[in-house]
Each structure stands twice: as C-alpha cells, then as structure tokens.
Amino acid sequence: SSSARRMIHRNNESPVPLKWTHLRSPNAREFLYSILFLLLVAGYLVRTHLLFISRVSSELQTELEKIKSLMIPSYMIELRNFWI
C-alpha cells in the first residue's frame, strides 16, 4: 500500500517547474526578451527585403515585356526580308 502511494506521488510530480525555474531569474528573462526582439527585427528586415525584391522583379518583368514587344517585329521583318 505504501509503495502504491509512493508511485502515485511520483506520478503527480510535474517535471515542468523543475525545468523552467531558471527562467524566473531576471538574466534569463532579459535573454529571452532580447532573442524575441532580434527575431522581430530579423522578420521585419526579411519582409522589407522580400517586398523590395518583388517590386524590382515586377518592374524588370514589365521592362522585359517592352523589350520583347520591340524585338519581335524587327525579328519578323528580318525573316521576311530573308525569304523575299
């Protein structure tokens, strides 16, 4: 009976407070907040960089479309002159 009581007591003990007690110290909390801040800054930088890249790529796409529309007629004219 006493061994069963010990097992129940052992099962009721939660290991989580033992693992997270070191987070109660102010240094660990500051460390976590600094990591969170750095992650937010990195996310902001990645987002702005991706927005810049998408804007530049869309402008490049429109420029390539303009160049393509100019190139095709001259290419067709050259082909026509070659066949005639």
TrEMBL record:
<comment type="similarity">
    <text>Belongs to the Ycf2 family.</text>
</comment>
<dbReference type="GO" id="GO:0009536">
    <property type="term" value="C:plastid"/>
</dbReference>
<feature type="transmembrane region" description="Helical">
    <location>
        <begin position="31"/>
        <end position="52"/>
    </location>
</feature>
<comment type="function">
    <text>Probable ATPase of unknown function. Its presence in a non-photosynthetic plant (Epifagus virginiana) and experiments in tobacco indicate that it has an essential function which is probably not related to photosynthesis.</text>
</comment>
<keyword id="KW-0812">Transmembrane</keyword>
<dbReference type="InterPro" id="IPR056777">
    <property type="entry name" value="Ycf2_N"/>
</dbReference>
<keyword id="KW-1133">Transmembrane helix</keyword>
<feature type="domain" description="Ycf2 N-terminal">
    <location>
        <begin position="5"/>
        <end position="81"/>
    </location>
</feature>
<keyword id="KW-0472">Membrane</keyword>
<dbReference type="Pfam" id="PF05695">
    <property type="entry name" value="Ycf2"/>
</dbReference>
<keyword id="KW-0547">Nucleotide-binding</keyword>
<keyword id="KW-0067">ATP-binding</keyword>
<dbReference type="GO" id="GO:0005524">
    <property type="term" value="F:ATP binding"/>
</dbReference>
<protein>
    <recommendedName>
        <fullName>Ycf2 N-terminal domain-containing protein</fullName>
    </recommendedName>
</protein>
<keyword id="KW-0934">Plastid</keyword>
